[in-house]
Amino acid sequence: MQTDVCxxxxxxxxxxxxxxxxxxxxxxxxxxxxxxDLRGGDDPGVGAVLCGCRVEEKARELSRFAxxxxxxxxxxxxxxxxxxxxxxxxxxxxxxxxxIMLFPACRxxxxxxxxxxxxxxxxxxxxxxxxxxxPRGRLVxxxxxxxxxxxGEILCPVNRPQMATVPPGLFAPATPRAVPGGIVHEQAPDxxxxxxxxxxxxxxxxxxxxxxxAPLVLAGGCGLRDEGNWRALEELGALLHAPVCxxxxxxxxxxxxxxxxxxxxxxxxxxxxxxxxxxxxxxxHHTVGMERSGYVIAVNNxxxxxxxxxxxxxxxxxxAAVVREMLRILSGExxxxxxSDPPGP
Amino acid sequence: MPGDAPLKRRLFSANIIESHRRIWLSGVxxxxxxxxxxxxxxxxxxxxxxxxxxxxxxxxxxDSRFGPSYDPVSRTMIRESSPLIVNPLDKNALEAALRxxxxxxxxxxxxxxxxxxxxxxxxxxxxxxxDEAYLLSDACFAGSDTLVTAFILARAVEKLGxxxxxxxxxxxxxxxxxxxxxxxxxxLGIPHLAHVCAxxxxxxxxxAVKTDLEDRFIHYRVTGPAVIAVTRxxxxxRHATLMDMVRARAKTVTTxxxxxxxxxxxxxxxxxxRPGRLVxxxxxxxxxxxxxxxxxxxxxxxxxxxAALLSSAKG
Lengths: 345, 315
Fold this sequence. Notes:
The complex is a heterodimer.
Chain A: E1 8-11, H1 18-38, E2 46-52, H2 56-63, E3 68-73, H3 82-96, E4 100-104, H4 107-120, E5 124-125, E6 130-133, E7 139-144, E8 150-155, E9 162-166, E10 182-185, E11 196-203, H5 210-213, E12 216-220, H6 227-240, E13 244-246, H7 248-253, E14 274-278, H8 284-287, E15 295-300, H9 306-309, E16 313-316, H10 319-339
Parallel strand pairs in A: 1-2, 1-4, 2-3, 3-10, 4-9, 5-9, 12-13, 12-14, 14-15, 15-16
Antiparallel strand pairs in A: 6-7, 7-8
Chain B: H1 4-35, E1 52-57, E2 60-62, E3 70-71, E4 76-77, E5 84-86, H2 88-104, E6 106-113, H3 119-128, E7 132-136, H4 146-160, E8 165-169, H5 180-188, E9 192-203, E10 206-212, E11 216-223, E12 227-230, H6 242-248, E13 253-256, H7 267-270, E14 274-280, E15 289-292, H8 295-314
Parallel strand pairs in B: 1-6, 1-8, 6-7, 7-13, 8-12, 9-12
Antiparallel strand pairs in B: 2-5, 3-4, 9-10, 10-11
């Protein structure tokens, strides 16, 4: 590959897990290989952009997975500042003229991608759940649509780069290269005063990442009908030691206030061993976030609900009643375990 | 459409019942609470010094409480069954705008780029207390992607007058790209911040905000005018009462078309992104068993299946 251009530029995020980054780089590598095949072996190459403060170590780690790492290491990047990060990314895009630019669909990634796309005057697809190269060498981005059972293609036929944000949890992580890629040190931009100044950073304590490690995830939707039944589902989650997630309407109804627990497009993607969906009909907006689950159990009173069609165990019935019954059985078990020690002989 | 009128009537009466219920449930307290937001006593009020202008971006989205309903044969969403409502997070943005206006004095204008059907959602924002509402609507706007949407909104802002602040919901409930606030800020050349979960304004032009990223909060000081996209944690939006709705009838929604906004090219033709084919996908293959029965039976079946699956997953 040439060194003065970068075919596919990946922003690796200023936070987030290495796994999410590797998924992006893995998918970028596949796209680069497809473009290379179309062009008689001229692989356009994958470059990873890393901004931070004293992140040389991380850059070396990343170089095992990318053809090139563009490193912007400066105290200016010790805390996330959208304007400043966007300045680096858009100037690198102008310098290396990527055909494709990918961002993680985390909160800062979305904000940066939108900003950079506006600065470069190009198109941006949000939350692409699939990426491909068409025979003409164009990026085909698959996004959820309002219809169900279908995904919509988004193309950016003329403007460059073709940009997309990509949610974590959907692609296979990159495998290490035989020889690490090079690290290119980039100049930090002048500190422009855009009217936004960082005044403090507050780490969240709590169990970030527990959702993705859970072997069992419970999820509830509007089929639970009211908040009382939602609370019952939460109780059930506590008894089963499983996180309780939701669909967007549940969040909008205010039953669940933690946005991080929303599964689907613009929410979280999970792939637990078992996914138990209660009262969720299964719009594509939801299912893209759970379809890699190992085993899906779905309860819904509508036999035509799409989620029943993709479940390993499809239960046609009232989700709220099933939740209540499961609670009854489990709390009965608990009582009999704690309440009645077998009398001694 | 012949089926339209009864549906509208039903929705209208549903609205009335809903408002009655709210009045009845919340009584005078909420009503008063919504009307008179107490000023922060630690801050000097600058009411009357210079009226401020805040724009709120509003999107009309299908009401998720009414669906989605499915056509079991084609398995597609029946969109017509969902009436349009104000995007929930936009109400948080409006609430923040109204509180700032009540403290500093000035006006709140709501902007929405939408087909004419969204006028009702805009009317609701007037009932909630917005002073002006503008519907940016033209057949040639159809199919605008986020970049072009931001361009049209920017043009409206330039025509209507530069604000002290622009507030928006962080994400729409339907397409949920979160792109527009940032892209509008870029287009106008003013600072912008997304995911804002707390906001205080020592003065109309200086904001202290807290943004919510996945693993931490970052506090920023923003010198306005700026575009701020807010999350639902920001505040608890007020409800419109029946009286609010009646009073709002005196205010009108102003429609601005492409000519009024001096826009020659918009919509799909001007957008860098193009929708392509619809492809089947997004689903796991249906491979499972389907069962039905009494809830107790089903509950027992699920629990025994969970026990088997999770013990094998561990081993």
